[in-house]
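Archive maintenance. Older records in this collection stored only the sequence; we are now back-filling the structure field for every entry so that each record is complete. The fields below show one back-filled record exactly as it appears after the update. Entries are processed alphabetically, and AAA family ATPase is next in the queue.

ARCHIVE ENTRY
Title: AAA family ATPase
Organism field: Qipengyuania aurantiaca
Length field: 315
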Amino acid sequence: MTLVGHEAAWEAWRAALSGERMHHAWLLAGKKGLGKASFAQAAARELLGAPAQSEHPDILTLTYGPKNKDEAKKRDDGKPYELARGIKVDQVREVQRRLTTRPTMGSKRVVIIDPADDMEVSASNALLKSLEEPPQGTYFLLVAHSPARLLPTIRSRCRTVRFPALPASAMDELLRNLAPKADIATRDAAIAAAAGSPGAALAFVELELGKAAQLMRRIVDEGDRDFSLRGQLTGVIGARQDIPRLQAVLDLARAILAERVTGSAGDPRKLVDTHAELVRLTGEQPTYNFDPGLLGMEIGTLLATAGAASERGNG
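Back-filled structure field:
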């Protein structure tokens, strides 16, 4: 199945397949949640002539592994385990050892690295050697959400295919089809927070933050002198230390503030400064585990301040 927004990527891939010489390394670039990993798996199967959705021994997928030996034992025992934050050099070297043997079922093999921009520096340097001297019949597909984080020498050896963010109209149609039970407020909030990423929008819908979006917009538009809206926002966010949910709340607040920055006719500097504060909170939340109630009040205060700045700018 062709995912929405992949048409140009498939056109480039299939044109290369039908050409005289297929480039050995491809960089699939675009924000998270656009389906790049799904494209990589489907493209690899097409290159190898494998049936759709099938497993293939000559598709080697490199992604996050267990955090340490204890977590690896949990994985081996079939238990839940914690993932490492990056792709390690030992993982790359293990794949390279596999590449010294012949492909299992033919003359070609595909290595998918997802996400390549989360490789440790030593892993990137190790991979570079394979990209410089690729084994015959081996093709690399590098999935990257932030390609600028990759070594320039890696990027220079790849053919880049960019996956665009979807427009709001396409996002709305997708959510109507894939999340028909979501109400309008939830869909609108998901579209704003996801900024063109279908995967992020679907994940957001599951968090049911439509009410939070309505309260955030009211705080920006109306202010909150008696703190009542901030109190309601804190209640909607909840008291659980749920990191994915809190990250989604911060993403939503940034998106709503970005709407105001774009639409402001006045001096946007205060709005931009407030947006930067939300970006800072978003980066710190996974490390500091802010109290959800205090975080909700802080978000509400930043939005109220931004709304007041916008009114002064427009007045």
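Update note: DSSP finds 14 helices and five strands in the chain. The chain has a mean pLDDT of 89.
Entry marked complete.
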